[in-house]
Amino acid sequence: MVFRELTSWKNIRRECNVTTKLNSIDSLYIDMNGLVSNKLHSLKDSIDEYSIEELTDSIFDLIDIETNTFKPRKCVGIFFDGVSPKAKMNIQRQRRIREYYKYKDRCNFQFNSISIGTEFFTQISNIIHEKIKKIKEDSNLIWNKVKVVFSGPDVVGEAEQKIFDFIKQNSKNTLENGCIYTSDSDFYLLALANRQYHLLVYNDCNCNIKNNKSMKRNFFSVKKLYQYILSHFQKVQEENQRKIIDDFVCLCFLTENNYLPGIHDVQFNDIFEIYKENWKTIGFINNNGKLNEENLKKFLSKLNDKVSIKNKIIYHLDEKFINFCNGKEDNINSNNDEDRNYIIKYELVNHYMLKSEVFDDIQYFCKDQKSKSKDVDYKDPMAIKYLKFLCSIFKFEYKENNKILINDPENKKGLYDSDHYWQFKKYLNQNNLNINHLKNFDDKKKVELLNMCKECNIKYKRNNYITIFKGDDETTPLNIMKEIESEVYNKKDFFLSKNEEYYKRNIPNCNKGQLINQFIKGVVPVFILVVKAFP
Questions:
Q1: Best label site of 134, 171, 254, 453, fewest CB within 10 Å?
Q2: Could you give the count of Cα atoms lying within 13 Å of 440 in the half-sphere of its Cβ?
């Protein structure tokens, strides 16, 4: 749902990860749909070789492994999806159709059967329920020490709703260390909305814990997420902190949710920055579940202003990009025929969200008077090409670099033999190298370092990135940005008349999505109803 956008925001996963001892968990809540889906998808094309009994055995073995590994002290909750709200059913139909076409030529097994109402899902639920009863009778130490709660697909409500209903009804001590085992990103925001800041989320359903010797795991801390959000707001009174969190959860619905189409020309960073800049003047949007419609419209209007001007600039630069690709732009030169052919092949770097992300980085760098250089690390080769084009527009220089990332640099997971690890650390110290900052090598030094990694059995991966620099006159990029903004600010027809065609070509899967101006006009009333229904 909404957390797909949130996870790429401001290194949030790194900021909110915690390592904790497994035996410190009080209650373990397992989202079975995520576990079953991940387990069966991991079998890929070989799934047809298994009977339903064998599949169920492998699923229950995973449940048993996780329970014995996490060693919860009070409760284990097994929650299957029941009937979902009617508002979500259209989304589910679309997902089922996509799933069918994805696997129809690869295997006979229907992955759509991993859902409520199918014979397969009912059988799995019943067999697992019986296995839990049996293992409790067999005097298994872990299972006998804890309360076991089972909620099958016959109980109405999705797993996440049932889990939080159970937590609210049964958690008298808010300091209890509960853990939700899931692959569903909804749980992060549900935990914030339900004030369950003590929860940890374990989001790696494919992890083979049985063969991992480490007795610690990385979890996503809801409390750290809460603190990290508030860290972006200066001197906020305690009474307003909860209201900011409520607004944060509410506005996350704008990017994507299970009930309404998202706004496809808006990135999460746009939403957060506009809110951070204007929350004091606009006022709170969500006051204890009561939505302030006027404040929401004020916020959306501010968001629309920012996104519209950015979209116009991106479209304006696309026109320049076409001219550049066709050799008609005199003041932009490319000496690399391979680059030129690549750009022409991919037309306008044909993804709006990709272009928007790259443009945001360039725009921020233009306005940042303190920074003279910036490292950017894009995985998509089209984003790299678009970055180079923008550098030529805004008169930035750039240099392609590489860095070496060491897996488990502090050896907290015990991946490395102690002698080998300290031999490697000694080499780094002798060469004044930081294990967390291995980059900008010449070829000779890089080969030497990689040889040392192999000699000491140190796991690593190589990663390329680009450093962009401001020239001697640091005001030039900002002046160019202002000129472009001024040029497109009052233009309307050149952009809006081609809106529909432009977005169809540039935004994937947006046939039913909304643009920000359409959202304000037509979707706000429905959005209000959805947020009111959110727990």
A1: 134
A2: 8
